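hey
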């Protein structure tokens, strides 16, 4: 593992030559994975954007970048440790280009057992910690699980938006399979996947919006600090009253809440 100097615009501009990559964007309580084309990537004064993938990396030149030469993987971690981006070029020619880029901006070798810094996760208050075991063990009955399961049955496509102070990600996602991975609910699709840490999912809010002239329902997910860390948007015609009915169910264990609702 080596550390790479990411303070220069030239480094970020060079990433567009890597073409198609497998990627993972990690946030403190959620993540998405899939394939992106870096050819549209560009750097502004501080932020790195990949418009085609709906991805922005704030304060990119102030973050930390590491590369595994052996496996041809790049690791980006935001300065505030609230976003991590992992890129793995798919083509052999792109992997060779990655070697060239990391060599040109090499800062130093890391110890053999070095691992990039982990992301900062929100601290759970005592009352929320008490509820974690119950919410994780009953993940199959969680409102989010139920709503995503219904999209599988009807092959409905949703838009997943995630954000933190480190950046944003937005993907189009058609759920095909749901898995429980520790405390995480994982939704697998044909070309992408997403996951949410149920232990930090404290409240929901359901909003309505008009996008491209069509009515949409937008499900906002909040952690116990009132941070809106994930939005899931769907055409209203695809789900009808289902989402609101699920959230209004007394057995759901959640309220329709806003940023400052912290009753439990």
């Amino acid at each position: 593992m080596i550390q790479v100097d990411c303070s220069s615009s030239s480094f970020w501009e060079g990433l567009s030559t890597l073409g198609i990559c497998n990627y993972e964007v990690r946030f403190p309580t959620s993540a998405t994975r899939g394939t992106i084309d870096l050819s549209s990537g560009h750097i502004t004064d501080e932020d790195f954007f990949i418009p085609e993938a709906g991805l922005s990396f704030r304060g990119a030149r102030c973050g930390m970048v590491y590369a595994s030469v052996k496996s041809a993987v790049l690791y980006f971690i935001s300065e505030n440790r609230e976003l991590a981006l992992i890129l793995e070029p798919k083509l052999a020619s792109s992997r060779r280009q990655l070697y060239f880029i990391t060599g040109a901006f090499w800062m130093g070798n890391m110890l053999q057992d070095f691992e990039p810094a982990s992301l900062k996760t929100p601290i759970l208050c005592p009352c929320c910690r008490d509820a974690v075991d119950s919410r994780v063990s009953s993940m199959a009955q969680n409102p989010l699980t139920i709503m995503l399961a219904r999209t599988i049955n009807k092959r409905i496509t949703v838009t997943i938006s995630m954000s933190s102070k480190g950046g944003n990600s937005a993907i189009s996602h058609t759920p095909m399979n749901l898995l429980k991975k520790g405390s995480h609910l994982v939704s697998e699709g044909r070309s992408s996947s997403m996951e949410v840490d149920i232990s930090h999912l404290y409240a929901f809010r359901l909003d309505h919006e008009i996008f491209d002239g069509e009515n949409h329902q937008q499900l906002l997910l909040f952690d116990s600090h009132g941070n809106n860390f994930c939005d899931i948007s769907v055409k209203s015609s695809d789900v009808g009253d289902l989402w609101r009915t699920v959230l209004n169910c007394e057995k759901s264990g959640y309220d329709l809440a806003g940023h400052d609702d912290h009753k439990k």
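Residues 2-109 form a domain with the Heme iron utilization protein-like fold fold (CATH 3.40.1570.10). Helices lie at 9-14, 92-104, 126-137, 143-154, 236-239, 242-248.
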